[in-house]
Design a protein that fits this description.
Strand content: 25-35%
CATH topology of the largest domain: Immunoglobulin-like
Radius of gyration: 21 Å
Oligomer: single chain
Strand order of the largest sheet: 3-6-12-11-8-9
Structural class: alpha/beta
Bound molecules: copper (II) ion
Number of helices: 6
CATH superfamily of the largest domain: Cupredoxins -  blue copper proteins
CATH architecture of the largest domain: Sandwich
Order of helices and strands: HHHHHEEEEEEEHEEEEE
Number of domains: 2
Length: about 220
């Protein structure tokens, strides 16, 4: 076999592989490209290079699904963006999303519990552990108090502590409405996406009792 025919064979193989690729995989990549533009813009506005933002977002999307690239920002996040922040550079007409952190949690650095069907987040004065966690779709999250004070002392609610330190509850959150009785509460996470939460008594500074669950497909 000559080198030339070898190359031809290689091309033919590559072509066959492309054809054999499931349509869903191809269209997911395409949809990711389209749907991740917000996330990429957001990433760039936070000072990261566009090529890096694009690479990260598309890789994440192809691996974890379209949910990692929300078409529109979550309601609470957009409230924060529209009331509290302007784009870097101070251009008030360009409203951008805050960065991809939720209550100080970043999906890339959150504790990886994606192989665990059940994940416990313990809480006490004035923290959650782990505060930032990644879980698989369908995982059961148990918030469990490590002292007798429980939710009476640390009412749990879904939402964000915004850039001004204000509480922004999210009525669409799995962790809404408030849990303010008892010491144990379970939530089964059947929706992908970031689910930030905080303690209504100690969410804002100086306590910063807050966190986020990232539900991955
Ligand atoms: Cu608290």
């Amino acid at each position: 076999m000559t080198t030339r025919s070898g190359v031809t064979v290689a091309f033919a193989l590559a072509g066959a592989l492309l054809l054999a690729m499931p349509a869903s995989a191809a269209s997911l990549a395409k949809r990711c490209k389209k749907q991740c533009t917000h996330r990429i813009t957001d990433c760039v506005s936070n000072g990261t290079r566009r090529t890096k933002c694009k690479k990260q977002a598309l890789k994440d999307c192809r691996r974890n699904g379209l949910a990692v690239c929300p078409i529109t920002p979550p309601p609470t996040t957009s409230t924060v963006a529209h009331t509290g922040t302007t784009a870097p550079g101070g251009n008030p007409t360009t409203t951008t999303l805050p960065n991809q952190t939720f209550n100080g949690c970043d999906e890339t650095t959150a504790v990886d519990m994606t192989t665990a069907p059940q994940v416990t987040i313990t809480f006490k004065n004035f923290s959650y552990s782990p505060a930032c966690v990644r879980v698989a779709l369908g995982a059961e999250i148990t918030f469990s108090a490590s002292t007798a004070d429980g939710f009476e002392m640390h009412p749990l609610i879904g939402g964000l502590i915004d850039n001004n330190g204000a509480e922004v509850p999210d009525s669409n959150s799995k962790f809404f409405p408030v849990t303010n009785i008892g010491t144990i509460k379970k939530f089964v996470m059947w929706q992908p996406g970031p689910f930030p939460f905080f303690c209504q008594a100690h969410g804002p500074p100086p306590f910063n009792m807050k966190g986020a669950v990232f539900v991955e497909q």
